[in-house]
Amino acid sequence: MAEESTPELRQARMKEFMSLLPLTMELAGLPKAQLGTIFNEGQMEVRVMNIRSAFKLARALVKEIGEG
Question: DSSP states of 11-53 as a string?
Fold first, then answer.
């Protein structure tokens, strides 16, 4: 049976995400926008997908390091 998402579990997931964010952003390799540049919806969606993939890799790396 699937776990229920409790406030504590959501908070732990957010803490994990925030702690991995610097590594995630480095892995994603996304360029920063120039001042005054606005991304359109499609560009933002691509960036979100890149960050999501990079987070999964960062999480796997940290888990691998912890187990090794």
Answer: HHHHHHHHHHHHHHHHHHTPPPPPTT----HHHHHHHHHHHHH
**Mean of per-residue pLDDT scores for the chain:** 93
The pLDDT tens digits of the residues spanning 27-67 come to: 999 998 899 999 999 999 999 999 999 999 999 999 999 99
Say what angle helices 7-28 and 41-67 make with each other, to 10 degrees: 100
CA angle centred on 58, ends 66 and 19, rounded to 5°: 80
- 23, 16 Cβ separation under 8 angstroms: no
Q: Which two three-digit tokens encode residue 48?
A: 């979100």
Q: Which two tokens stand for residue 27?
A: 């892995």
Give the residue extent of every domain in the chain: 12-67
